[in-house]
Amino acid sequence: MTNPTNSPSHIAIIMDGNGRWAKERGLKRTAGHEEGAKVVREITTHCSDLGIKYLTLYAFSTENWTRPKIEVEFLMKLLERYFKSELAIYLENNVKFKAIGDLSKFSKKLQKVIQDTQEKTQHCTGLTQILALNYGSRDEITRAIKKVNEQNLEITEENINNNLDTAGIDDVDILIRTSGEVRVSNYMLWQIAYAEMFFTKSYWPEFTKIELDDILSDFKKRERRFGGI
Ligand code: FPP
């Protein structure tokens, strides 16, 4: 579903640069992820205060498993810790949590924490924070097409859309990637069809509410034509 207004309904972020942020400060890469998790909370709360409907954050890609084992293990533990400490914050801010991606590759323990967090925030009616976990857009689209086939449905845009992990969620209005890299890295390829894109020089651990506010003011000035004139 596209949104023709200049108030964004859905913001998606590629949180990049944790490793470089840490390296430049003589710290281990994991310190960058730890700091990045704090920014996740700050930006989520800010989006909630601004009345944004959906915030989707790329927390772990289908390709991230190829990182050194020690870093992958750290990220898994960080996610477990994050969900445990975050439940109270979600509830306090009326934030609903949803995961997208193929969760079956995660440990049973992490899958359970994710499931519990989804269930316990199900009744929340404010912002929906979506974490992309073991997520890859090609994988998501392939799984969606398989589901369409299994239901003996015709391959149409609507049927594919309704079988994506993001079924029922508005298209992305704003895509942000931090850290100076200008690429989309297999992230929400279907959902960003008409998104406005923003690339920041700041690394994710130094991304602030003020920077997000600047992006939102810039977005309001952009003319979105969705293929029309
Ligand atoms: C990219 O930085 C970041 C990731 C692959 C992981 C994102 C994780 C977090 C922001 C923290 C944990 C998240 C939650 C929700 C608790 P990079 O490591 O690729 O940085 P680099 O490009 O500088 O090496």
Each distinct ligand: farnesyl diphosphate
Question: Any idea what the CATH architecture is?
Answer: 3-Layer(aba) Sandwich
Q: Would you tell me the structural class of the helices and strands?
A: alpha/beta
CATH superfamily: Decaprenyl diphosphate synthase-like
In the residues, how many domains can be counted? 1
Can you offer a commentary on this structure?
- This protein has one domain: Decaprenyl diphosphate synthase-like (Undecaprenyl pyrophosphate synthetase), CATH 3.40.1180.
- Helix 4 links the parallel strand 3 (96-100) and strand 4.
- The longest helix is centred in the middle third of the chain and has 24 residues, at 69-92.
- The relative contact order is 0.20.
- It is an alpha/beta fold and 229 residues long.
- Strands 3-4-2-1-5-6 form a six-stranded parallel β-sheet, with helices on both faces.
- The protein contains seven helices and six strands, in the order βααβαβαβααββα.
- It binds farnesyl diphosphate.
- Farnesyl diphosphate binds at residues 15-20, 33, 36-37, 40, 59, 64, 78-79, 82, 131, 179, 204.
Concise summary:
This protein is α/β, with parallel strands linked by helices and 229 residues long. It contains 7 helices and 6 strands, in the order βααβαβαβααββα. Farnesyl diphosphate binds at residues 15-20, 33, 36-37, 40, 59, 64, 78-79, 82, 131, 179, 204.
